[in-house]
Structures are given as structure tokens and as C-alpha cells.
Amino acid sequence: MADNSFSDGAPSDSLEALQERLDSVSHTPSSYIETLPKAVKRRINALKQLQVKCAHIEAKFYEEVHDLERKYAALYQPLFDKRREFVTGDVEPTDAESEWHSENEEEDKLAGDMKSKVVIAEKEAEAAEEPAPRGIPEFWFTIFRNVDMLSELVQEYDEPILKHLQDIKVKFSDPGQPMSFVLEFHFEPNDYFTNSVLTKTYKMKSEPDKADPFSFEGPEIVDCDGCTIDWKKGKNVTVKTIKKKQKHKGRGTVRTITKQVPNDSFFNFFSPLKASGDGESLDEDSEFTLASDFEIGHFFRERIVPRAVLYFTGEAIEDDDNFEEGEEGEEEELEGDEEGEEEDDADASLKKEPSQPSECKQQ
């Protein structure tokens, strides 16, 4: 009979050898993969191919989501148009439309009854002296002031201009066109520029990167275009004029020249940096500015425009703050639990061993 002891023991020997190799390396995912046999690595590569195909299916899913967003945007728009009419005062809401029951309605009613007896005469006097304001004054400007992300961009000299802002709209790209959306800022006639609409177009990409397909997590903004603002003479707040003295090298005479330099302003929002498309990388500050711009555009589209009244009243901001505080509280609680578990483990070891009006020209 042939001696089969060598062939029977070979698999066991190879497994033991593999285990020794695994034990000898640091236990990081990459180091673990490097230790695997060639046949196993080959199967892992096959799984990666499947993962890439999954990413492409996911991209198709997001394209259909964009189609749904476009469809439902058309359903929302009549409501947003009515919102604009109420804000501007073009239409007065009916009694039924203006009826609203607050959570603290009973408390508000009691407090109101007590105060009304004291202030009713004053209110009547004020009403006689001052005409009722039209619509909801400074609606969008108030939203800018309430939202930190926007208020940080607004300078004091921007404020009188933003008080003329009457509406902000989101327009989605047409079917069959590259994925994008446009923010439209509608202004009433004013003393600052002649445009009735300022636009900002955000271009999106919803397909896995060929060089890094596993980084795909859905559509992302990849570039944006602003528009040209037709400023009236002397009203351009995005530049400032400075005086500079120059001394002639030969004659020693001094002359004063004036030049325009860029000025901080919200309206620089319509002259964005361009994403690098020629292979040259942007510096760190430019990358941060561009990323912030994309974030603001997304916030207008997803939060500000759909829920404008709640950002005007501050309710949406309170909800956002409460949500963030809740997350932090949970994190602290979890950390406390972990510490408790560590202490328990330590004790045990001692015992055992997340409409198209006139618009500005696109840049």
C-alpha cells in the first residue's frame, strides 16, 4: 500500500503556514488581504467587479430620482407661486387660508386677552397713524439673517439690496439633458442693478468615477456658473475703489491713482470660482471656497426654497439645532456606556484575566 501520509497532511500544513503568516502581520484590512493566497485574491477581484456594476445601477437609480424631483417640482410650483403672491402683497390670503392653530393656542389666547385690554387703544392709534405694510416685508432678507450659512456672506452694504429680493426658485434640468439645477433670485426694480433675475447654475454628476468607482455615493455638484450683474453706475458692491500713491523713480514726483479691487459681498455668489477642468489642481483655499459654494447651493435647493416660511419664523432653525444637540447627547451617552463597559471589563479581568423674465447673462 502506498504511503499517503504526505498528501493527507499537506492541506493541514499549508493552513498552519497561512495562520502563522496571518499572526505575524499587523491586523489591518490591507495587510490581511496581502497575506491571502492568489486564488482568494482572484475571487476578491471578481467581487469588486460586481461592486462596480452595483455602483452603475445605483447611478441609474439616482437619475430616476432626479426625474421624480422634476415631476414633483411642477406640482409644488403653484403653491410656491401663491407664496410669492402673499409675500409681495399682490394677493391677500382669505380667512380660511390664513387660519392656523398653534400648539400653544390656549395659552396664547389667555395671554392675548389679558394684554389686549391694555394695548388696544395704542394699537388703534398706531393703525390710524401708520398704513398696514404690504405683504410680508423683508421676507427673504430675514431668512438670510436667520441662517448662519447665509448671514456670514452678507455685508452691511448688501442688506438694502437683499430687501428687494421677492422670490427664490429652483429649476431642474430638462429630460435628456445633463443633470443640473438652477437657482433663480427674483428682484423687484431697484436702484442697484437692472436685472430682474439673477441665476446660479449647478452642474451635477451621477456616475461612478472611472478612477475611483467605489467612492460613488450618489449625485454630486461638480461645477457651477453664475451670471453677469448689470450694476447701475456707482452701485457695484462687489468692488471698491482705493487710492494709491506712486512715486516717480527719476523725478521723485508723487501722483495719486485710483483702482478698483474686489470687495466682500454676497453678490460674489454670482461670480463663482471654476472647478479645475484642465488637470491643474486648485489651492487649498480655493478648494474650500468651491466646496462651500456647492454646500450653499445644495442648502438653497433642499432646505431654504421648500421650507422658506419656517426659516423666516426660525422654526426650521430650532429643529436643526435640536437635531444636532440630540446627536451630540447620544454620542456622549454612548461614550459613557463604553466607559462603563471598560470599567466592567477591567473589574472582570481582575477576577478572571455615523417663468422666465429678463435674466442676467450667464457667465
UniProtKB/TrEMBL annotation:
Compositionally biased region (Basic and acidic residues): 98-112
GO terms under cellular component: nucleus
Record-linked InterPro entries: NAP-like_sf (IPR037231), NAP_family (IPR002164)
UniProt KW keywords: Nucleus
Region of interest (Disordered), ranges: 1-29, 91-112, 316-363
Compartment(s) where it occurs, according to its Swiss-Prot or TrEMBL record: Nucleus
Family assignment from sequence similarity: Belongs to the nucleosome assembly protein (NAP) family.
Protein name: Nucleosome assembly protein 1 like 4
Organism: Myotis myotis (Greater mouse-eared bat)
